[in-house]
Amino acid sequence: FFACASVSVLWLFSIGSWSQRIQSPKHEETATTCPTVGRGSRAGSYLSFFDGNKDEYVRRYSSFPDTLRVKMKDMARDMFYFGYDNYMKYAFPEDELNPIDCEGRGPDVLNPSNININDVLGNYSLTLIDTLDTLLVLGNVTEFQRAVKLVIDTVSFDKDSTVQVFEANIRILGSLISAHILLTDPKHPFGKVGFEGYDNELLHLAHDLAVRLLPAFENTSTGIPYPRVNLKTGVPADSVNETCTAGAGSLLVEFGILSRLIGDSTFEWVARRAVRALWSLRSNQTGLLGNVVNIQTGQWVGKQSGLGAGMDSFYEYLLKSYILFGEKEDYRMFQAAYESIQNHLRRGRESCNEGEGDPPLYVNVNMFSGEIVNTWIDSLQAFFPGLQVLNGDVDNAICLHAFYYAIWKRFGALPERYNWQLQAPDVLFYPLRPELVESTYLLYQATKNPFYLHVGMDILQSLEKNAKVRCGYATLHHVVDKSKEDRMESFFLSETCKYLYLLFDEDNPLHKSDNKYIFTTEGHVVPIDKRFREKQWNDFFPCEEGALAEREPHSPPCDRIPEERRYTLPLKSVYMRQIDHMVGLF
Ligand SMILES: *[C@@H]1O[C@H](CO)[C@@H](O)[C@H](O)[C@H]1NC(C)=O
Ligand SMILES: *[C@@H]1O[C@H](CO)[C@@H](O)[C@H](O)[C@H]1NC(C)=O
Ligand SMILES: *[C@@H]1O[C@H](CO)[C@@H](O)[C@H](O)[C@H]1NC(C)=O
Ligand SMILES: *[C@@H]1O[C@H](CO)[C@@H](O)[C@H](O)[C@H]1NC(C)=O
Ligand SMILES: *[C@@H]1O[C@H](CO)[C@@H](O)[C@H](O)[C@H]1NC(C)=O
User: Where does Ca(2+) bind (predicted)?
Assistant: First the structure.
């Protein structure tokens, strides 16, 4: 069995054969090529597998001493403070820290079309706001309170800034709501963090911002919002009528919580209407959605369907909305979407940890035909194993995560796009994204397998080695030559550092069994709370209640992995070796 399994790996040496096979989802493997063992110069490296005692994967990954765990936790904490303290010293009240020049960065006013900057930087102290709840996760109550007061005293959204609705929602609105809830949580999960005189100012700020985002939902004939608004003047004249699916369809978690906190259904209503509109445009053949849509005509402008850029958090928020609000409609949509994904995007062998064939991988296809449209996967898709964990599909999560980890090992980072056919990056930058760490953390919570602590350590050490600069951590411009760009996105502190710290912090309040939390797509902590399952208004869209499947998602799904697997590798070493080889590690 293993012999043939590893033989099928040998086929991968021929790039053509893998890409051919990965393009036909139901390819039947045969074992008739067993005799080719030993062919080719690299084949010898597989033979070491048969020498079980010396298996390098088992040796490397199957334990993680507690002292090392504490050391890594401290390293993650120091990483956060190095970035945070320098932001406060050199950049605040501007939006971001330029970590090489040690200066602040705000919107690019000279070049309004520089959306790479202006979509995100609204001249509203972005990094400080995005970081609030991370301070609590790290247990720094005094600094959290100081930061909250600074936000209250200095931040205003009455700014002539044109930002992306999606970015403002996940980074700013989500953080304000999360910090407000944690400040007022009667269960005090992080100890006494509320302070004298707090008068719901963060909630008022969140509400003010959300009102400024509302014009995006007007004058669109589908209900799918415009991608950008000016915080002072609304939707700019001559705005594009095109938006990506994730941008328009990942607002429900934050807008829904806001509506339920203030008892005004407007926000949830517009967010839900957008999700429903997108959902109604899915292909009736494949059940898939595209990545870019015209908000006036409902025509798909981008017909690519995948799990990365442009689509990622759309799926994430269907499931997370259900977990938070308990609306069955959201779970039905998620289940149907997940099934379409498994049927049309997933390639490779059927089972992660059994059988022969290529490792499972999710490719980009045409939403109508299901045909593969390119041979790259992007760095953002590395979030998906975390979502699979939330959905209870730990097995598939393990395999997809292992693929991204192998890419990380090769480059010490994740290239923005990796071409699995050419075994090379297509797009070379790495802006300190959190998605792989996020999945690593959720898989560790689900399996408690020390393998994931090693993954976290590798990530931490590569960031120290490749990205650390004078005043913080810098975007890698080029994952091969490790040249840098002078930018540290706010998600580095709010997500990358937070998930790294949580991975190694066994005793965090978030890990106590009576505290149940979910993370927004920007890593903001939100309790799963009865309050959010109640609403003061009637259903906006009364509709037939279909049967809800028996299996409900759990968060996190501890104990789903057989006991024995907790103490060995999550993925058999023959398969790890296969993946490492496929991404060119040896
Ligand atoms: C940011 O906002 C402040 C105060 O409203 C204003 O004075 C400043 O010009 C703005 N900066 C940019 C880059 O827009
Ligand atoms: C909290 O953060 C501040 C600012 O970085 C720092 O000076 C202080 O030492 C931190 N406190 C703890 C307990 O970590
Ligand atoms: C919607 O269009 C109408 C008519 O063109 C215009 O008066 C109104 O200001 C628009 N609303 C928004 C929010 O742009
Ligand atoms: C967007 O659509 C509206 C309504 O169909 C149209 O009037 C406007 O010109 C379009 N904008 C652009 C930039 O194409
Ligand atoms: C499926 O959608 C296409 C257009 O996308 C439409 O022409 C066709 O009638 C639809 N088929 C069914 C069975 O609804």
Answer: 521
The residue type of 444 is Y
159 lines ligand 1 (CB under 6 A): yes
202-219 pLDDT per residue, tens: 999 999 999 999 999 999
List, chain by chain if needed, residues with CB within 6 Å of any ligand 3 atom: 215, 218-219, 234-235
For the stretch 181-191, pLDDT in tens is 999 998 889 99
Q: Kindly tell me the burial class for residue 488, based on how many C-beta atoms sit within 10 Å of its own C-beta (0-12, 13-18, 19 or more).
A: buried
Is the C-alpha dihedral spanning 13, 14, 17, 23 positive or negative?
positive
Ligand sitting nearest the alpha carbon of 501: 2
CA 365 – ligand 5 centroid, Å: 19
Q: What is the reported pTM? A: 0.89
Distances (CA, A) of 8 to 33, 100, 275, 349, 551: 8, 47, 42, 11, 35
* 298 φ, ψ (degrees, to nearest 5): 75, 10
* 211, 212, 219, best to mutate for ligand 3 pocket (most atoms within 8 Å of CB): 219
d(CA 537, CA 567): 49
Please name each of the domains of the chain with its CATH number.
Answer: 2-582 (1.50.10.10)
User: What is the per-residue pLDDT across 311-359, written as a single tens digit (0 to 9) for each?
Assistant: 999 999 999 999 999 999 999 999 999 999 999 999 999 999 999 999 9
SS3 for 66-80 is HHHHHHHHHHHHHHH
Burial class (CB in 10 A: 0-12, 13-18, 19+), 146: middle
Annotated binding-site residues read: 521
The preferred substitution site among 296, 297, 299 for testing ligand 4, maximizing ligand atoms within 8 Å of CB, is 296
CA dihedral 129, 133, 138, 141 (to 10 degrees): 90
Which one of the ligands is nearest to 299 CA?
A: 5
Greatest alpha-carbon span in the chain: 77
Place of tokens 């799990």: 307
